[in-house]
Design a protein that fits this description.
This protein is α+β, with helices and mostly antiparallel strands. It folds into 2 domains: 79 residues, Phosphorylase Kinase, domain 1 (2-Layer Sandwich), CATH 3.30.200; 187 residues, Aminoglycoside 3'-phosphotransferase, Chain: A, domain 2 (Alpha-Beta Complex), CATH 3.90.1200.10. It is 41% helix and 17% strand. It is built from 9 helices and 11 strands. Strands 1-2-3-5-4 form a 5-stranded antiparallel beta sheet, with helices on one face. A 3-stranded antiparallel beta sheet has the order 6-9-10. A hairpin with a 3-residue loop joins strand 4 and strand 5. The relative contact order is 0.14.
Length: 278
């Protein structure tokens, strides 16, 4: 990928690709002051606009990295934002540091309930996509018909709630954690939607990837969320929104290779058969 535009705008810097939780192609601009990263999207990728507008909405909130600039060249879009010092939150789970992990799941509940979901669609003019409870499974030809029928059964649910800001892929994997703080990164799936979109995905994530700890960590997260919110969270609703988030991904991978599709069909079936905390 040609990054000449970055070197022109930020001379005397060295570009280093980052992993550690960042999605897409993310570069650290070593030597910049303040230290910043560039998140690079294909110009045709509409997720860039969602991330730009979400970060702009949250700028200087402390919830997300502070955005500095946005520009494009012939092929790519570039979002320039603060480099956040710390460790990806999922790493503490992977390393078995349960004391820190419990603290992180409390922070997730506080951040989500009191600083993200308090931002209401009706009070904002920010141009973000509307994310509904998804039930468009009939068009997914690669999903077995038996699973489609089960999906329709679980999504036959009526929930009314003001739309709030949602992250779209919320969880420890999209946080940078330091000693006493947590910053939420990777907002390209951000939008306006029901708060359960984020709540269900956080619970789904820990059940799928960390079954030995899922009940305890889900309880910590949900209990903390409820301290800061009056939102009713039921088992039925968590299941429905978890399925909806999986459908969102299935729609995104329609043209992926067969191995990716097979894995996400497996995850859909697992979601249908799993009992989540509510």
């Amino acid at each position: 990928m040609d990054n000449n535009i970055l070197l022109l705008k930020y001379p005397n810097t060295q570009l280093t690709e980052l992993t550690g939780g960042y999605t897409n192609y993310t570069l650290l601009l070593e030597g910049s002051d303040p230290l910043v990263i560039a998140k690079v999207f294909n110009k045709s990728n509409c997720d860039a606009k969602s991330e730009l507008n979400t970060l702009t909405l949250l700028n200087d909130s402390g919830v997300s990295p502070r955005i500095h600039d946005y520009f494009e060249d012939d092929t790519s879009s570039y979002i320039i934002m603060d480099y956040i010092h710390g460790i990806n939150g999922q790493r503490f789970l992977d390393q078995g540091d349960m004391d820190k992990t419990r603290e992180i799941y409390k922070w997730l509940g506080v951040r989500l309930a009191s600083e993200i979901h308090t931002i209401k669609h009706k009070n904002s003019h920010s141009d973000l996509p509307i994310i509904e409870l998804m039930n468009g499974i009939d068009s997914l030809d690669f999903v077995p018909s038996g699973l489609k029928d089960k999906v329709k059964h679980f999504l036959d649910i009526h929930i009314e709630e003001d739309k709030t800001l949602i992250h779209g892929d919320f969880g420890p994997h999209n946080t940078i954690v330091s000693d006493n703080s947590m910053v939420v990164i990777d907002w390209e799936w951000g939008g306006w939607g029901h708060p359960l979109q984020d709540i269900a995905w956080t619970v789904w994530f820990v059940h799928l990837h960390y079954p030995d700890f899922c009940e305890e960590l889900s309880d910590i997260f949900l209990s903390t969320y409820r301290v800061h919110s009056t939102l009713h969270i039921s088992e039925e609703a968590v299941k429905a929104f978890a399925i909806s988030r999986v459908l969102n991904i299935l729609n995104r991978i329609q043209y992926a290779n067969i191995n990716v599709k097979t894995e996400w069909i497996r995850r859909l079936e697992w979601t249908l058969n799993t009992n989540f905390a509510g």
